[in-house]
User: Fold this.
Amino acid sequence: MSNEPNIHDMTQTTCDPPRPQLDNGGPRPVLEVRNVTRTYASEPPVQALRGVSFAVQPGELVAVVGPSGSGKTTLLHLMGTLDRPSTGTVRITGLDVAAMSDRQLAALRATQIGFVFQQFFLSEHSTLVENVADGLLYTGTRPADRRAQALNALGLVGLADRPDARPTQLSGGQRQRVAIARALVGRPSIVLADEPTGNLDSATGASIVELLQDLHDAGVTIVVITHDRSLADRLPRRIEMLDGRIIADTATATPTGTGSVPVDATNAVHADDSRLRSGRQP
Ligand SMILES: Nc1ncnc2c1ncn2[C@@H]1O[C@H](COP(=O)(O)OP(=O)(O)O)[C@@H](O)[C@H]1O
Ligand SMILES: [Mg+2]
Assistant:
């Protein structure tokens, strides 16, 4: 038997975090965005999102693509519960974000959402395995287990052999792999990536896209935000944005697309769900 880290170890159901459940005869969307607007109270006010609706089903790999200023990062912040919509509804694993306290949202983020950013955001004073283990800080994972899970996650991104290196010793592509491992280590319900190849040359960016496709093949649910149409065209579903609106969604263009599941059918879980009690406040 191989001791290689197995990507399925990271994505299978264990005791927690919760996995999508079957109710109302179908899988519950991991993410539901319904009639969402976001207006920044700047002078003059900016309507960054003007009524956006879509759902992401378990296991999907979705590109949100559009030019600079179309509202992609604003949407990512709402999907990631880092910001709240001006109007409309965001649900993560069926939980209505508006009904939750900041403390509950922090717990939801820690256990259900993995973030990847263009700038990597690694600590240069920490080793790779420490950086990845930081992804477990607020999940209630025992310190003794954090390193083992972080080593496994580093294996998933092809960096198992250098756990004690520092980010400064790595290339940009390797740094982004570490950031992806940190996003995966808590086995979140969804990974949100904002321009993950934006700081990389095209060959390195292509290898990151391949990694995301491998993770998708292993069942990880991923939303990738990008202005790069050639990158988006390589992903199975594309949501196209312009001026704060969705102007195309390949899931709804295809009758068999999973994104066409009505978002109203699945509100079976409430904000007092026990999954949130395990999370601790930062
Ligand atoms: N904090 C903010 N205050 C005011 N306007 C903002 C703020 N953040 C973004 N915007 C504006 O909202 C629009 C959408 O921005 P953003 O979501 O960053 O788009 P994208 O990520 O597609 O480039 C742009 O017009 C941008 O200038
Ligand atoms: Mg942006």
Q: What stands out?
A: The two ends are 39 Å apart (CA to CA).
